[in-house]
Amino acid sequence: MQRNITKSHILIVVIFFSLLVLIYAYFRESFSPMNFCKPCVFPEKDIFELENKLDEINNKDMSGQCLIGGKRMDRMAMDLGLKYAQPSTLNGRKDINAVTNWNAPLVWEGTFDPVVMDAIYKKMNPRIAVVVFAVGKYTRFLQKFIETGEKYFLVGFNVTYYVHTDRENEVPKVPLGEGRKVTVVSVPSANRWQDVVLGRMKWATITIEKTIRNEADYLFMMDIDSVFYARFGTESLSRLSAVLHRGYYRKTPRDSFPYERRPQSKAYIPAGEGDYYYTAAVWCGYLEDMYKLVKYCYEMSEEDAKNKIEAVWQEESHLNRYLLTNKPTKVLSPEYLWSDYDALTPDIKVKRISQLVKNYAEVRPNGGN
Ligand code: UDP
User: Global pTM?
Assistant: First the structure.
């Protein structure tokens, strides 16, 4: 009898302590043998710890030239929990080509999910510089450009418009979203529109060196006589993005492109060569890559001037020459610069930004086309 009681006592004590250990282990998440009986969901704390760890690892990776302001700008990272449509491997638009022959994305409406794109770029939260020129009578285009930019251009991101002008008192005060501002940069007037257009490369090079380099991760070069009509978002960002010129994106053969054809110019492209014809009215990329390219266009036009030649389409010719042998990492469809001179073609599902119809003779200092 005495022995039986002792055994029961021992058994009760063992069960009691086992229970205590189990309860303690249950509340200690780190006790791995217990994990099998917990639901397969990470507690929030773990998700954040994991993502912070991943951020730390990724931002430490110094390979490539993508580390900007201590952050990598090429990282396609996203947080768990975002709701978006499942992407398809087979279904997509059949009326356009969404990839170049060097395997870069060719961006059209329907080839990206804005929710996913914005979530990815929000994690990097880049600072974006927009360099525009409004010299002489072109100040009249500032109001609409900035007003519509605030509605459609990289909404929710940090954007600074660097307005280069010879008429500072004509820069309008437009209400701006949070994290967005206008910086006015004074430039001299010019007698020829060609000098303004080419001069942009010189003055942009100087502003980047002086100011923008310390204030931005991405840079856009844009014409001011344009208006935004629909989302122009993070899907446009890459190391170097160029826009297909609306007038030539359906044209073959490539010899019909208006490249510079005179071998005396630094912008020369021989017959039988070329991929696409890109517009110089919108181009963008990482600050340092864009700096290199803007400076290249400036220096090449200076070389041409020394040799008494001006490329047929000024900096656009030099841009096209550069992009032939230094391929862009993203090509944007003409949705990213249409023109109010032309009716929309069926493949343009969204007109995101468009050049305004203007009276060239009236608005340019030396008139004409
Ligand atoms: N521009 C300017 N003042 C001028 C001529 C040109 O500010 O007198 C700038 C302006 O930013 C304009 C860009 O240069 O958007 C390109 O010039 P323009 O629009 O005349 O060229 P287009 O695209 O019509 O050939």
Answer: 0.85
